[in-house]
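Case study 2.
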Amino acid sequence: MRRKLGPWIALVAAIAFMAVAGWFLQGPRPAPRLESGSEQSSERPREQLKPQGQLINKSEQIAGNVSPTSVEKEPPSAIPGLEFVDDDPLVAQGPTYCADYKSLVYGRASAIFFLVDAAGKKLRGDHSICAWLTREMGRFGIEVPMMWDNDASTLFALGEDGFGMEVGSYTLRIFSEQYGDFEDHFFLSRGQSLERKIRLPRYRRVICFSFIDQNDKPVPALSLSHYVRYEDDWYRRMAEIPRSKIPRDALLSVGAETQYAPTCRSGRARPSEATEPGQYPTEGGRYYVEVFPGTVQTVRFRLLKEMYGVSAAEFRDYFLTETWDITEVRLWLAPDFAEQLKKLPEVWGFVAGNAIVTTAEPRKYDDGILDESTIPPKMCRIIVTAKAPVHVWPTLGYSSSDQTKPTRIEPAFTYSRQFSCWWTDVDETGYHNDPAQPGQYLLTLTDGLLFAASELVERGDARLVRIARTFKGNLLFVVPPSPTTAALATRVDAKLALKTPKATKGISRSGARTIGRSYLKTFMTTEQIQTLGEAEIDGHAIFRLGLHVATRVNVPLSWTAGEREKFVAGDVTLNPPGEGLVFRAVGTWSEGLPWVYATLLEQTSDAETKIIRRWLIDYPEKVAKLAAEKKLGSWFEEHGVWYNSKTSFRSDDHGFMTHRPPLVPGKRYVLYLWSNSRDELRPDRRIDFVAGQGITDLGAVMLPGYEK
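Prediction:
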């Protein structure tokens, strides 16, 4: 029996083999036809997606930064009839995205640099110095802001508005006209607090010139101050450094890139070349000058020839030897020198012989602010001290008798850490053209939000006016509506208004607030609360990181009658819902990625955009022809690109990304993202998510970092 069945079994097996082989030789079968905007495409099972055509090497394309090469095949005649096969795993339908907030709260890094000169002494705060800190990311770089502490000769790199430094490689460059240049490279790890002492190549030295006349008597005064000129121009050196390289836009332009100026400290006390003659008294003929050995420099004294016999006294050297400790300079004074000197005006604030440079420490800018002798002539010094539940600061307005004109605000106050006060010098006129009220000023203390207290200040004949105020009141807290907005809210802009039945405008204040905790805090005095009545808060807060427009999250502010009653009785916290989309783009080290682009579209439109995107890759010439003939469909005619150009946005320097228009709760959306890829046809990631109520917070979104 087995002998008889054997040939039949072999025959059946052969036929089956030929059938399977024939099926494979037919090539890929066409997928279901996809009409533009079809709902069927978004729900198509993954197993139906078969490879078709030639895939392009993505890494080669990015490295060469070139457009994709079209494949060698005949394109269909029109897009609506395209037998579309989605063979790109990037855009394949996947599970709905789940938010991850872990990378938003990691320990942020910081760096502190203690600057000393070549002799090991800290730098004086009365000399100019500029520093660049660059965050290096592969072939790109971005400048990071820093802060100076003049008294401690220290640079603080704490990130924008104290947000913290990102993980990664950095380059620090320092330029100083006096102390020379410095460059250093370092790496910051997560949560690291780097502290480093930096020694600059030059040091400070004080030399002395002894001016005597033809009779060997000391010259009592000079007609112009000296100046020092360095032959290695530091402005040219700064201009020649390689600046940070910012990548080209991945999509259509969605705003200017962040630009930072170098962190510079300008000298206050360093003498400059005077243009108007005056009396610069010597110290018994001696005149002291600061030099910085290590480079060729020129010390020059400009003089009036009719008084001193020469128009200048000039000295050029490295100033390294002891012979410069004191140098004698002989001048031939005119017979009527004393009479001519009396005709020159006295220079206010000049120390005889420029002896101020001989002190071990320079005079601090706010030293002696309580001393009337430090007040310039014809000026009045106003000193303000204020205590309140939140940080408040003064503004000075120059009042006018014409109440229809707005009060001019002069933000001239300087904060003194030494005396814990604000101070400014004003002239006797008040800088306004109204002679009816000379010397009258409008002082306003405010937190920039709800609180404001104004009063008139009369200077009279006083040279020094001191004002101290204490305020008590209830606190109003506004909490960010999501974890990511709380992470980026190191700075808040808010505009709040109190609207009452009697006043439609009420009180309105706006301003920028820097906060260490993730909430907005303002207050009102007891008197203001008593007049609150039926008033309501109306306005909005903008939680953002620094000044970058891309990080803004608008939060509407309002309160119920119950919350208003609580505020009258005591402190109250508002938890506004907010609206829009927010997330943070991070790299493999959880570092925030700048220059990340994103585009958002509804999931029902994703199928049509996929078709256009593949056509732009495979048939660029055909697309150009169909676009000219307006046969690419309504989407392309409206946007001109395959993605939604109306919702394109990008990240800030720390990777935060926000999209302010509200999303429809429960609706499904698709988000395309570009980081290392700068090709609009090749996004780095696709996210499919469902919008929630209020703010849709996607947390930290992992993307490729920037490669060499």
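Confidence is low (pLDDT under 50) at residues 1-72, 268-272, 430-436, 503-516.
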